[in-house]
């Protein structure tokens, strides 16, 4: 016997009436509604979640897609959660741990109307596959993606990185090392391009070990500065870092090695976090929180069919004691 | 016309046969199944998500409940996500932004079998209400909660904080200030109790402004050290901090003020993060990642009806240059 049958039998009403109560139809008296609701409660009857959401048309939940969560993405995540919340939307974060099948759950959930829209922080699936879900709802990405179905709020990292590069050149540094982040990301490509352009422009010295990728953490920053400064051969006199965590590791380890900062080694972070502030590290202000606000506005515009209120965003150099 | 009707009509099969395909019944030939699946795809028919999950009995998704995400909870979150992933479970994080109604969505989702279990990082709803969802699936909490329906992996913060207190006493410090965290949490109560006990045991001086609560960030640590050291009257000579971020702020601001650390002011962090390591801050190792593993094992044990493989966990003092 189905739940509906059972509720109908116990309440003494027809299945059609029970169904009307479930569907919030106005054509049911309050007494009838109360009786049926009471029996549903006694039976611990769980109305189908999708049915409820579909009747309202929206779930008011937005899925965020990410492999994992680290310090660098926290400002994006928190700003998105807060902005969405101001508009009555809840953010649900789908972690994939890098597993394409788990990541796809979020997209399947949008297809099944469990979430209204998706914002991608990082993703691992083939972009063509992910793009195909664009017909089920808005998809916005924090990363740069050249897919028409996925709008992006990414900023041109070339420009931000160039600010740091031109700054250290102006301060007289020429032996530039780079601690780059994720080797496959378009953000890293943009930064690499800026470095190549500045090398050409100023005819700077280049060493093969001066531009490693995959450097994200304090410990990796510490290790990098040991490798760079203990190597035989020429040493860099400035390190531009993928983020402020790496810069903190570089700065502290360099000091422990007795290296004078910024006289012998300059350090530049990225993102201009509280850590860069408290440690006095020169950094590039990256309007991450504002990007998240833009991402939400793009989604909201699509969901409501209105114009998205986008902010114009710019990187800024914040000079401190390490350059 | 319902989707089922439409698929039946277009495929030439009965509704019963279409239904059998949807329910993965073995009593359908492969040819029939293929024909019907093809039509479902053409119609872009979305099978009901709950129905699919219910047929397997589990969604293999676990919900994490939290107000928001900060650096301090990242090790818990990431360790949980990773452990769950090793066992084939996906973690979905429900952010509430402190809104009880949004938080309740996660619990409603467990009731509707959209997630198999819940792990609470922080929560804002009345615990009696949340406990009532215990009948729908396992609920485990990172925080201490004295509810039989919610298992907890919390450690006794009294013991961890006492390690720090006894250490600074042994180093000769007596004027102890505390930067406490969330005033309403049982974790903070445990730490406050340890402080009160040590004050009594060693007959230590106490000032009303030496134990503020709600101190979580680098900036708040910087501000606190200015307030404490610029006040007229007696100054503390050691600050125990709610976490390593606060300790980093205290340490750097004290140095900027020309205060000698640890001679004039000692600093103790909490959690023993990479930040404490790179800045040389004495800290209390807090086995947060292992707590998350325990939380997952408790859930898995409940879901599979097996014994949970719990680890025995202990705090440890890690002495560095700030004490």
Layout of secondary structure:
Two copies of one chain form a homodimer.
Chain A: H1 3-11, H2 15-22, H3 30-42, H4 49-56, E1 61-66, H5 74-86, E2 90-95, H6 100-111, E3 117-120, H7 127-131, E4 139-141, E5 151-152, H8 157-170, E6 176-179, H9 186-202, H10 218-230, E7 238-241, H11 244-256, E8 266-268, H12 274-279, E9 283-285, H13 288-304, E10 316-318
Helix pairs in contact in A: 1-2, 1-3, 5-13, 8-9, 10-11
Compose a concise summary of this entry:
The structure is a homodimer of 323-residue chains. Chain A is of the alpha/beta class and 323 residues long.
- Biggest interface, CB < 8 A: A-B, 47 and 47 residues
Strand content of chain A: 5-15%
Q: Helical amount among residues of chain A, as a percent range?
A: 40-55%
Poorly predicted tracts of residues of chain A? 48-55
Characterize the biggest β-sheet of chain A: 5 strands, parallel
What is the rounded Rg of chain A? Answer: 26 Å
Number of strands of chain A: 10
Give the name of the CATH superfamily of the largest domain in chain A.
Answer: Response regulator
Number of helices of chain A: 13
Shape of chain A: elongated
The separation of the N and C termini of chain A measures: 75 Å
Number of domains of chain A: 3
| Average pLDDT metric of chain A | 90
CATH architecture of the largest domain in chain A: 3-Layer(aba) Sandwich
Give the topology string of chain A: H per helix, E per strand: HHHHEHEHEHEEHEHHEHEHEHE
**CATH C-level of the largest domain in chain A:** Alpha Beta
* Quaternary structure annotation: homodimer
CATH topology title of the largest domain in chain A: Rossmann fold
């Amino acid at each position: 016997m189905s739940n509906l049958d059972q509720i109908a039998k116990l309440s003494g009403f027809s299945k059609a009436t029970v169904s009307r109560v479930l569907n919030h139809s106005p054509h049911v008296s309050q007494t009838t509604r109360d009786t049926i609701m009471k029996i549903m409660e006694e039976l611990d009857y769980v109305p189908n979640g999708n049915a409820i959401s579909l009747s309202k048309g929206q779930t008011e939940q937005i899925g965020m897609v990410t492999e994992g969560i680290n310090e660098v993405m926290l400002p994006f995540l928190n700003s998105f959660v807060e902005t969405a919340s101001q508009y009555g939307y809840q953010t649900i974060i789908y972690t994939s741990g890098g597993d394409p099948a788990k990541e796809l759950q979020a997209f399947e959930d949008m297809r099944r109307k469990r979430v209204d829209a998706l914002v991608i922080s990082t993703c691992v699936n083939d972009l063509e596959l992910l793009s195909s879900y664009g017909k089920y709802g808005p998809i916005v990405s924090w990363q740069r993606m050249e897919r028409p179905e996925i709008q992006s709020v990414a900023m041109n990292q070339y420009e931000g990185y160039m600010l740091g590069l031109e700054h250290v050149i102006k301060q007289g540094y020429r032996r530039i090392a780079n601690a780059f982040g994720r080797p496959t990301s378009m953000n890293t490509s943009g930064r690499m391009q800026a470095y190549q352009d500045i090398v050409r422009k100023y005819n700077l010295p280049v060493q093969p070990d001066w531009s490693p990728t995959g450097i994200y953490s304090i410990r990796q920053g510490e290790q990098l500065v040991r490798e760079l400064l203990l190597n035989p051969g020429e040493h860099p006199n400035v390190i531009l870092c993928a983020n402020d965590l790496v810069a903190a590791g570089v700065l502290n380890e360099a000091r422990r090695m007795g290296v004078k900062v910024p006289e012998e080694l300059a350090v530049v972070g990225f993102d201009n976090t509280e850590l860069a502030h408290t440690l006095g590290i020169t950094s590039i202000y990256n309007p991450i929180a504002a990007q998240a606000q833009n991402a939400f506005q793009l989604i909201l515009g699509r969901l409501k069919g209105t114009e998205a209120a986008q902010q114009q965003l710019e990187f800024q150099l914040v000079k401190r004691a390490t350059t």
